[in-house]
Structure formats: structure tokens, C-alpha cells
Specification:
single chain; 61 residues; mainly alpha
Amino acid sequence: MIYNKTSNAVEILKQHISQDPDLAILVEEERKRLKIADKIRESRQRIGISQKEVAKRTDTT
């Protein structure tokens, strides 16, 4: 693998992703999980409940 020299973490990640299809899939899956987590956080903040309360209501820890 040939990488351009940079100290920019985002650019380094982009280089790795462009050369590794498996990594690209993993990164996309993580982006989807983060989007869901962000929607949950926004929703709970909008209705004024804590993360602990969400866990209690969904029977998780």
C-alpha cells in the first residue's frame, strides 16, 4: 500500500479506507450506529430525560 505523507488524521483514514474495502464497510457501519445514537441523544434531550432514564425505560444498563 502506498500512502501520501500527512499528519492529518482524517486524510490518513481516507487513504486507508480507499485502499481497504473491508475497512470502508466497517467505517460505514459505524457511521450508521453513530447517526442512530445521535438521534436518540437529541430525542432524550428534547423530552428532558437522562441517559440513565432511557436505560431504565428500555431495561438496559
